[in-house]
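TL;DR need structure tokens for one chain.
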Amino acid sequence: MARVCDVCGKGKVFGNKVTFSNKKNSRSWSPNIRNVRAEIDGTVKRIKVCTRCLRSGLVKRAL
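>> reply
TL;DR here they are.
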């Protein structure tokens, strides 16, 4: 499970690509994951976080 947010658990989603002729082909959507240094319980760790969690302020970035 490499491309999964450590905060919210958001991962890859599967669905169909639909053409004009209404053909369905399988495709997937990946979340926008970033490797960040975050402060967790007073210690600095590297975690994978989606940009939605970063923007929402759910992660305290370490300097």
